[in-house]
């Protein structure tokens, strides 16, 4: 470290200055031998440099120990919090029949600073959770609106649902035989079997994540309007019968 190099340079400088002082003021005349006082002066210069070097070594060791302790404490704090997060997800998973995946990514999305020891640790989640809540509220508002939607508008709603579920790193296919696949490859988790409960389950998952991260309380679904339900069924039919926009409605392979 720069500080260590400065201290070490100071030690060398003290030694050299001591030597020059000794030579300039106590040097023997030509032809004379070293006197006893000259030897004491030389030893004093060496002792000064040695003492400074010992002080540098002690300070450096203490600094390293303090740094190692800080890193170790931070890692243990992060591990404890992540273990609690995993237990929380296990409870949500069991209660709502969802499946979380890539949990480290989900944790880092909610708590982006906690793995970096140079940044402050926090049990409060970041603004990402608030963005998820706003996205969910938009899905709910569209689903309960008593107006008919075009096929493209329902497709956009299903896409937004899939993206939000992806951000929260979970899937919900409990009791699903077939589901909507975008471009015949990206599973949406939406089907005729579960679409009426899928949004409620998403609200429950988001409520759980919000509570753990202290970013809000309960957020729920007000149900589907009959107009939206008819439009969603229309989307599934046109996809199943015509492979509309190369989407598919099928069991997972």
Structural overview:
- This protein is mostly helical and 253 residues long.
- The protein has 2 domains: 2-83; 128-250, no CATH class.
- The protein is built from 7 helices and 5 strands, in the order H-H-E-H-H-H-E-E-E-H-H-E.
- A 3-stranded antiparallel beta sheet has the order 4-3-5. A two-stranded antiparallel ribbon has the order 1-2.
- Strand 3 (179-182) and strand 4 form a beta hairpin.
- Helix 1 (2-26) runs antiparallel to helix 2 (36-96) and helix 2 runs antiparallel to helix 6.
- The chain is elongated.
- The protein starts with a helix and ends with a strand.
- The mean pLDDT is 84.
Which helices and strands occur, and which strands form pairs?
Layout: H1 2-26, H2 36-96, E1 99-100, H3 103-110, H4 128-143, H5 151-167, E2 170-171, E3 179-182, E4 186-187, H6 195-212, H7 226-242, E5 248-250
Antiparallel strand pairs: 1-2, 3-4, 3-5
Helix pairs in contact: 1-2, 2-6, 4-5, 4-6, 5-7
């Amino acid at each position: 470290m720069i500080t260590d190099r400065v201290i070490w340079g100071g030690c060398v400088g003290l030694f050299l200055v001591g030597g020059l002082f000794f030579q300039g003021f106590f040097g023997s005349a030509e032809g004379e031998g070293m006197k006893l006082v000259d030897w004491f002066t030389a030893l004093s210069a060496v002792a000064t440099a040695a003492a400074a070097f010992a002080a540098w070594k002690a300070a450096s060791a203490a600094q390293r120990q303090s740094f190692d302790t800080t890193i170790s404490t931070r890692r243990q704090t992060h591990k404890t919090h992540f273990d609690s997060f995993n237990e929380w997800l296990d409870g949500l998973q069991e209660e709502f029949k969802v499946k979380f995946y890539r949990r480290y990514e989900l944790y880092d999305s909610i708590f982006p600073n906690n793995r970096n020891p140079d940044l402050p640790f926090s049990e409060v989640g970041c603004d990402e959770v608030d963005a998820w809540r706003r996205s969910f509220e938009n899905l709910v508002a569209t689903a309960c609106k008593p107006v008919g939607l075009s096929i493209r508008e329902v497709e956009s709603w299903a896409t937004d649902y899939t993206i939000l579920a992806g951000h929260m790193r979970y899937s919900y296919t409990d009791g699903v035989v077939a589901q909507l696949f975008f471009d015949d490859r990206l599973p949406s988790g939406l089907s005729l079997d579960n679409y009426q409960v899928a949004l409620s389950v998403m609200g429950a998952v988001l409520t759980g994540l919000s509570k753990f991260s202290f970013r809000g309380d309960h957020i729920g679904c007000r149900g589907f309007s009959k107009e939206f339900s008819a439009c969603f069924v229309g989307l599934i039919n046109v996809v199943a019968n015509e492979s509309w926009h190369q989407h598919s409605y099928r069991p997972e392979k």
